[in-house]
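QA checklist item 7 of 12: single-chain prediction sanity check.
[x] sequence parsed
[x] length recorded as 708
[x] structure emitted
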Amino acid sequence: EAVTSAASLIGCSAKDLMLALSTHRIQAGKDIVAKRLTLQQAIDTRDALAKFIYASLFNWLVEEINRSLEIGKRRTGRIISILDIYGFESFRRNSFEQFCINYANERLQQHFNRHLFKLEQEEYELDGIDWTKVDFEDNQECLNLFEKKPIGLISLLDEESNFPKATDLTFANKLKQHLNANSCFKGERGGAFSICHYAGEVLYDTSGFLEKNRDPLHSDTIQLLSSCSCHLPQLFASNMLNQFQKQSVGTKFKGQLFKLIQQLENSTPHFIRCIKPNSKQLPGMYEKDLVLEQLRCCGVLEVVRISRAGYPTRMTHQEFARRYGFLLSEDNACHDPLSVSVSILQQFDVLPDMYQVGYTKLYFRTGQIGALEDARKQVLQGTLEVQKCFRGHRARRYFHELKRGVITLQSFVRSENARKEYDALMKLRQQIARETLDEQMRAIVHLQSVIRGWLARRNFCNLLKLKKINQNNTNQKPGRKISEMKDLSQEHGQVEPSVLAELQRRVLKAEAIVGQKEEENAALHEQLQQFEVRWSEYETKMKSMEGMWQKQIATLQMSLDAVKKSLPADNTAGQPGRLGGSPLPRYYDSEDTMSMGSQTPGGTTPIKFSSNVRDVGVGREINGGLDTVSLLVKEFEQRKQNFDDEAKAIVEVKSVEELRKLKLRFRTWKKDYKVRLRETNAKLHKLGLSEMKKIPWKWWGMKNKRVT
């Protein structure tokens, strides 16, 4: 199960993994010999593979994290790093791992001593400060035991690891042979040795040192990683193959430690010492001896002595003069940084025991710089208050200037907007005035048409009355008039013969004219009867035509209702399909529609023309009216067909905009058609009334009376 899981994680077969861990192929000339490994060798190979994958994965993760945190060109190189070291380790059995960890702690303790003891005291001496040296324990001899070449622990370990037949016991004997002269080394019985570290003496067992230092990662294992399907094992194997020289674990660890120390030397370190309160790892227990031993081993007591006797706060003369120089009055001001620094210290009455003046720096004891910082903060606070008031005044003045400019700009913009609004309002008022004038003109024309219609109807009634009187006069006999005239002449006495002859001649002429007119009137009566027959036929035709129109309008209404149902409900108010509420309207009985034909046509006045001429003209006008009605019927049929087709097309596409356009066209045509229908109706009505004797005609819907 373990082999299967490991093989699936790295992306290879379980068989290949078992073969790489249990055998080792060796090339002898042109032949390759597979050598079976012992159990311990197979375990070491397995551990080496696991450590190699872990170390490579750790390095890869660190590189990826650092690459993701880069800011490109803005990268400054300034970092804040935290180095966490567990500390010295001393167990019952200490092996190669404790050897490396304790070596790293020795090197870091040397860095700690260098910064807190060596460098600080050297700085005091170089800058001419009166200083008493503080003794501390130096671990340089122990570091030489680890790092010295060619006779050092790491060098001898690498040398022994290169011998194929070397063992851990031969390595221990070699250490005793070469390092017994060192005071920090002590050889023990068996394969063991002890080292006096900075924190105390630690006993090491050499069992497994050589194998762990060699880190036996065979070529078979690297080839297995190269053939894996996963990307990371392939990357780790390629990095391993690209290394020019294979290093041992100890040498590699030493190089990494030197690189770390180099980075620490280039930084400003701050140290935090962790103290174990007891060895039993229990809460609430404090072992004084153990804590005191740790404080001595870590050099904390020496650090405390140096801090109490030293000068933790230090500044160069230039920095001190630049930071506190403005606190001096004008009388004490000068350009020399050293003189400025001394003048500042004298002005604030700093005691001579609390500071020292070096060649390049000023050194202060703990807490002495606080008074200067308080004075500096107070002066800067007052300066900031003055600057704040001045900047506020300048900002307010700028704001008021900007506000005046904005108000001026707004006045120009608002005046321009007001002018535009005034122009638009004037145009609107002019348009409204024109529309009002047009409405008034239409109302005046309508009133005039009504009055003219009324005058025409009154004139028409008078003409009918005159016609009736003329007909009554024509029915009287002429002999009666002659006898009456004779009786009249006899009653008035004797008349002259010439006058009487003239009167008789006129009477005869009048009687001849009357006889002729009677004949003409008889012919006209026959024509009138014919016209009445035609009129009744025309009236019947118009009634049938009206029924046909109603059916066509109903059909159009159904088509438009279908359009209305197919369209969305929110557009039903704008549909033109509401023709059912207004079919072809019968406006023919109203006064306003009669006024459309109010102008009296020429040739209808019976006072100046004879009745036969008038009747002929009426017949022609009736024929013209019938032709006009036929054209209107044809137009209605054609329009009805067009609107019906367009309504069906709109139902298919379901377009509200097209429906609105159809409604507008229908209303426009309906209005025009209604006006022309009114005019034709009024014309025909007028012509019919001119021949009927006081008979109140309706267009249809009432039974007409015959002329007796």
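[x] summary fact logged: The longest strand covers residues 23-28.
[ ] second reviewer sign-off
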